[in-house]
Design goal:
2 domains, 6% strand, five-stranded parallel sheet, Rossmann fold, alpha/beta, rod-shaped
Length: 362
């Protein structure tokens, strides 16, 4: 509930061209415990005072020179007609119906006839302030609730992304890779997406969904996944199934993030010429996100050291990517990738394994 103190601490603006009226109203307010009021007899100052004070209540005379009360209400409404707009209590000697209706439709909440009765004036002032302060309290509570909901939503989103990254890490560690691979790969994927003109929202989606690209490796037996030598045909078929396993793990989600992660998981080993797996998709039939991640993933794999191979130089990796343009990779994406190579190298250098060095292209 609104306390008496809240009412008496409310900001009140008095606008009346008659100094005698202003003095009388100030005295009535002061004797009743109001202290936070400001007055003017110059209607040309009304808007400036309104902006400066942001009053809860305006006591407004209608019949004034230069700007009458209707003008003042219109000027205030033009500046701020939202939640912060004050209650307006019109003070007028005019009692005709037309004036009352015009005042109420112009923004006034109530009116008091001059000469006014002290008790009636204080009652109407208090009623209007109670309504205004109660509305203000409800708005503050709503804003607080919205902030709590937004904070909780952000926390849930951050938790969801954390789970996704950790699951991506689990898949990488099974394959003797570290979490820095998915950080580099996802950031390069997002940079490439940005360079081809995708929106910030789409780039963030790629950044946060691409770490799940190899989640299906969780379903590959160790005998195949960790085999030190070359895989035979049957084993290679099992290894290729990590794409469909990943898609199955990620399917059925009700978020755009999981759906995009599913698309990436099942399509990042497809090739531009149709020779990839699991579905042999060709050209633009391959989802764009799959084509983007495929390029970023191969570049990082080539330039990273593994137990079974030395890291390639950036130049060697770029030469390979150029050679595979139009066969393994989308040629348009290859061109853009080469154009942002300095940014790609910066990402790759910033998130290297301890002691690992990236040989850059100058």
């Amino acid at each position: 509930m609104i306390s008496e103190k809240d009412i008496k601490d409310s900001r009140i603006l008095i606008i009346d061209d008659e100094q005698a009226n202003v003095t009388l109203i100030e005295k009535i307010l002061e004797l009743d415990g109001y202290k936070n009021f400001t007055s003017t007899t110059d209607s040309t100052q009304a808007v400036e005072l309104f902006q400066k004070l942001q009053p809860h209540l305006v006591l407004l005379d209608l019949n004034m020179p230069v700007f009458d009360g209707f003008d003042v209400m219109q000027q205030m409404s033009a500046i701020d007609s939202g939640d912060n707009f004050p209650c307006i209590l019109v003070l007028t000697a005019q009692t005709d119906r037309e004036t009352r209706i015009r005042a109420l439709t112009g923004g006034a909440k109530d009116y008091v006839h001059k000469p006014f009765d002290r008790v009636e004036l204080l009652s109407r002032i208090k009623n209007q302030l109670e309504v205004k302060r109660l509305y203000e309290m409800v708005q503050n509570q709503n804003n607080h609730l919205e902030e709590k909901v937004a904070l909780r939503t952000q926390e849930l989103q951050e938790t969801r992304l954390e789970v996704i990254h950790r699951l991506g890490l689990a898949a990488e560690y099974r394959d003797n890779e570290t979490g820095l691979h998915i950080i580099r790969m996802s950031k390069v994927s997002a940079a490439l997406a940005s360079a081809i003109g995708l929106s910030d929202e789409q780039c963030d989606l790629i950044l946060n969904s691409s770490p799940m690209h190899d989640i299906g490796k969780l379903g590959i037996p160790d005998a195949v996944l960790l085999k030190p030598g070359k895989l035979n045909a049957e084993e290679w078929q099992v290894m290729q199934s990590h794409t469909t396993i990943g898609a199955q793990i990620l399917s059925g989600g009700d978020t755009e993030l999981l759906e995009q992660a599913r698309l990436i998981a099942i399509s990042h080993h497809e090739k531009w010429d149709g020779s990839g797996y699991p579905n042999g998709l060709k050209g633009e039939d391959i989802p764009l996100v799959g084509r983007i991640v495929a390029l970023a993933d191969v570049f990082d794999a080539l330039t990273s050291e593994r137990p079974y191979k030395k890291a390639w130089s950036v130049q060697q990796a770029v030469d390979y990517i150029k050679e595979m343009s139009g066969t393994q990779f989308d040629p348009a994406l290859v061109d853009v990738f080469i154009s942002i190579l300095p940014k790609v190298q910066d990402i790759s250098s910033r998130y290297r394994e301890p002691g690992e060095y990236l040989e850059k292209v100058v």
